[in-house]
Amino acid sequence: MQYKLDSVFATGLILFLGLPLLAQAQVATMEQKIELQPGWNSVYIQVDPVEQNIATLFAGMPVASIWRWLPTDEGARFIQDPAEGLENVEGWFAWFPEPRPEAFLSNLFRINAGNAYLIRLEGNQSHEVVLEGRPRFRPLRWKTDAFTLTGLPVSTNAPPTFGEFFSRSPAHQNQPVYRLDSNGTWQLVVPGSTPIRAGEAYWIFTRGNSGYQGRMSLVLDQGDSLEYSAALDTNRIVLRNRSGVPGTFQVRRIGATQLPLAFLNEDPETGETAWPSLPSVLNLEAPTGQDVFLSLAVIRRNFSAFRMEQILEITDEHGERVFLHAGGNTIQPFVAPGGQTAGTSTQNVTERTSDSRSLAGLWLGEVSVDAVSESQLAGVEPTPVREPFVKRVIVHVDNAGQARLLKDVIQMWEDGTMAPSAIDPTAMEVDEPGRFVLITDSDLIGLFSGSAQRSGRPVGLRYSTVAYDFDGDEREFDGDFQPGGQISVSLVMEPDFPTNPFLHRYHPDHDNLDAEFLNFQKEAYQVVREMRLILTPDDPLGRTPTGWGETIVGGVFEESITGLHRNTIFTSGQFRMRRVSAVPILNQ
């Protein structure tokens, strides 16, 4: 069997942003080429095929049957040669093509990554199967004191022998390994002289427990790929050199697509950090027995498409290799009620869809006031204070770029709808997907369900602040909410406003009532707050975290307060906000 895993290319994919809208994406897939020889073949799948249906993948080929082992908790204690028949062996699932008489016995229908398959090919000619898809990282899972049918993460060029690969694993040293021959018989291999073939599956015995992944060990913080969601800017890869000798890990970009990525570079002596762009090839020192942390951040401001992807190849000097798929969107797709993108025209939405710098959504942040003017001296320049005062600020930005100041917002969930399938009317499929909603009008809460679980019950996620107050649910900012721009808003608290600091309903001198407590008489003062947020292109703190300008913004805060003192009070400081939701509309 010939196995090739070296052809990677980008294809176009259409993503829906509302029913009538399309956005181009740059998708990274790769090809796994499997050379099927006449007779029996044992293959290991490393990509999740775009087309997973077995009947479609092997259409036109003289395939007699395809088998997959689904082990029990105990695993396999003995090995059965497929030439002797697998139909009555517990744990085996099979696919038989039409019009073979056994076709009605088929209970295997899809090909998936991280699994081993036995394929019997009829005739006397070889056939090549090409699987196009995304690589999925699936750690090896060994059965205790049993055989495991699996492939191994090795390169096609100069792969290690079985003896070399398992040289650092006591649970696998001197344990039997079997390879399938074309006659359907499992043959014992000689570990010291038999090289491992990429994409081939073997029966491998494990003595006791083992979590061994090879001399190059790789762990992801989450999932089986590097997926950057709307709220995630950084993923971490943990590598460890278990070979016993110092070495090097090599990270290489594969294919034509270039997902904008940066890696964390930390000076071990000074502790200073930087985020340079990930080069085409990155070499990392691999001390023996130590963890090597590789943090990769997505740079959304450099996106040239709505979604971009990349395939990464990670290798060492010993012929071991792992592929990782990385991908992210500029912002999570949003579909408004009725399939329309809310708050704007189709033309404008299409233009903004291609803009990777869209900042629509809910922003939650903190303002650190570190300077206040000398009000008793009628000062206008804020002077530094000993300890800063921190307060929360909530801002929502719609698709048109209009920013609004909020004081209370709840994230809820609207269930989707189902409809009969157009292909099979007896089956139901998603008609309109569920979605998150942002509610500032408390009268609408009952129309939706909770977006999180608390003590087993769905509840909404509430964001609120007591740092300011105003009449109504929102106040529009003037200006542009974007790095290099600024927004400002004026908040007026009238004498009778409930949270006016001078209003005390049970104090005769501050209750806004006359001496008889019957008629309105102004006793509290009007308070006017003028707030301005200046969004700087660079982090004013000099840290410039990943996601700056896309999911994190910040800059300079300025405020003047009139009416609280006989002289206007001026304050200033810094602020930083993070986007916690990409929903661009409120209350629907």
Structure description:
The protein is mostly beta strands. It folds into three domains: 3-13 and 25-136 and 140-206, no CATH class; 216-329, Immunoglobulins (Immunoglobulin-like), CATH 2.60.40.10; 357-407 and 465-581, Beta Barrel (Porin), CATH 2.40.160. Helix content is 3%, strand content 43%. Strand 10 and strand 11 (186-188) form a beta hairpin.
Helices, strands, pairings?
Elements: E1 3-16, E2 22-36, E3 39-44, E4 47-49, H1 54-57, E5 63-69, E6 92-95, E7 116-121, E8 127-135, E9 146-150, H2 162-165, E10 177-180, E11 186-188, E12 202-206, E13 216-220, E14 226-228, E15 234-241, E16 247-254, E17 261-263, E18 265-266, E19 273-274, E20 281-286, E21 291-298, E22 307-315, E23 321-329, H3 346-353, E24 361-372, E25 383-397, E26 403-406, E27 408-414, E28 417-420, E29 428-432, E30 435-439, E31 449-450, E32 452-454, E33 457-459, E34 461-464, E35 474-476, E36 478-479, E37 486-493, E38 527-535, E39 552-562, E40 569-581
Parallel strand pairs: 2-22, 14-23
Antiparallel strand pairs: 1-2, 2-8, 3-7, 4-8, 5-6, 5-7, 9-12, 10-11, 10-12, 13-15, 15-21, 16-20, 16-22, 17-21, 18-19, 22-23, 24-25, 24-40, 25-26, 26-35, 27-30, 27-31, 27-34, 28-29, 32-33, 36-37, 37-38, 38-39, 39-40
